[in-house]
Description:
The protein is of the alpha/beta class and 313 residues long. The chain folds into two domains: 1-37 and 288-313; 38-284. It is built from two helices and 24 strands. Strands 1, 3, 4, 6, 8, 10, 11, 13, 14, 16, 17, 19, 20 and 22 form a 14-stranded parallel beta sheet that branches. Strands 2-5-7-9-12-15-18-21 form an eight-stranded parallel beta sheet, with no helix packed on it. Strand 23 (267-268) and strand 24 form a beta hairpin.
Amino acid sequence: MILMRNGLKRQLFTIITxxxxxxxxxxxxxxxxAANFSTSQTRLNSTLTPHGPIIIKNNxxxxxxxxxGSGTELDPYRIENYNITTLNNVGINVLDTxxxxxxxNCYVDAWMVGIAIFDIEPGTAEISDVTCKDHNFYGISIGAxxxxxxxxxxxxNSDNPGxxxxxxDSTEITxxxxxxxNNLCGLYVENTNSCDISYNTFADNIGYGVYLLSxxxxxxxxxxxxxxxxxxxxxxxxxxxxxNMFYEASSEEGxxxxxxxxxxxxxxxxxxxxxxxxxxxxxxLIRLASLYFLPVLIALxxxxxxxxxxxxx
Length: 313
């Protein structure tokens, strides 16, 4: 009998140890995902070169500005290291091109729009490590497909309409690891589908952090931080579209909402879509509810162990 009890104790110890290790592994995986959320966005070089507006209306215009690069996928034209502070309507405007290009490490302060990209060949552009601020209309405006906007700061676009980033008539735009703050609206999406909006901070925007209009479909909003948008209202995002998701399906992880007290419950999203974030995260982008299962499982294992002991007795 003693040997049998010792055997059961060893089994109990093994099971509990396995559960603890499983939980630690899960936490490590979530921490790795949270590490994607960089806190080192856009440290602009203090020696940026002052430059006038850059207006590119076709492929030939790239050579007008003596840009580095050759326009290929491996060697794109580079609009980089510029301070574009201007009273022109647009700071950087690219449209109707098929060449590859990147806009990186730039500061843009124009009258109406900081950076505008429209009607270019899909997958040929990237915006990275820029700061766009103090525009009357949009910090960044995109009407194209398969563009990435990352590691950037868009702020203080607070005159009507005062939108941080405006996506219109676009598909498969990746918006990741950016900060949108003190705009009338952080991100405004219209007639746009299949975009990935992740690891961004939407903070202190006067209106919604994210606004998806009725003609936006199949967009995914996940692993973002929503902080004090819409005057601290309960619902900091609005969705009027179809099949948009405020969580990542593969990980079952949503977003962080600073004013949502019950982090393990569903967060409602404003708008006609009647959407929700079923998997809210804490400020470190870890799903707290996933941490609760360990003590429950251990308790169940102990109960089963005690019942087996009684039966053997």
